[in-house]
Write a structure and sequence with these properties.
Length: 111
Amino acid sequence: MERFNNIKQWLSEIDRYASDNVCKLLVGNKCDLVDSKVVDTGKAKAFADSLGIPFIETSAKESINVEEAFLTMTSEIKKRMATQPTVERRPTVHVHMKGQPIQQKSSCCSS
């Protein structure tokens, strides 16, 4: 569908420049404007399914599913982070300073 061409281009850019395990979410905005809807919910959902990414409709004006969209992304990020191998932590290096501390010059505002 022609309406999804920009989305395909954006996803191509994401695939080109982002890491392989980047989280994606297709968000249909302005779901409160039912009478002037441009893309059918079913078609948008089917498109997202064909790409293997979740879909959610939101309305910033009516505060519909906005928080859910963020929670969906954070949940997915958390799941992906949990399945990644942990980076080996390097041992902590302690630095011991010897000598006298340098005296700070007083400023006009110090008491």
